[in-house]
Amino acid sequence: MKFRRQSQQEVSVNLTPLIDVVFLLLIFFMVSTTFTRETELQIDLPEAEGTEAEQENKRIEVEISADGVYSINGERLEGVERQALNERIQSVADGNTELPFIITADADARHELVVRAMDVAGSLGFTGLSISTQNSPDANGE
What we know:
Blueprint: H1 16-32, E1 60-64, E2 70-72, E3 75-76, H2 82-93, E4 101-105, H3 111-124, E5 129-131
Main location: membrane
Subcellular location: Cell membrane
Keywords: Cell membrane, Membrane, Protein transport, Transmembrane, Transmembrane helix, Transport
């Protein structure tokens, strides 16, 4: 019984073409990149005296306490019914659905109450809806 010896061939990958392509890409991007220098204007603004004009910063803030009480723009709402919430928001908004609508809920408030406030805002046509939060001490590394 004779054993045949298999020849061992060395397997190698030629990296030269890959390096050539990388250098060509590098040269291409270096040549085709344009660097713009932005100019600045030196402006001397006039000075004036007076008081700053107050801006009307109207918005609708719905606060929900831990015990389930709604407060709209700081005024407590008696009851948690959808209809009462709907009427109060309509009276505060005065038909302007472009106002920012902010919901602030206690961490222990029932989820149902937050969803109800969001649902009323959506049914009235408010599009600028946001939910306020506060940073936790863990997020600041304390």
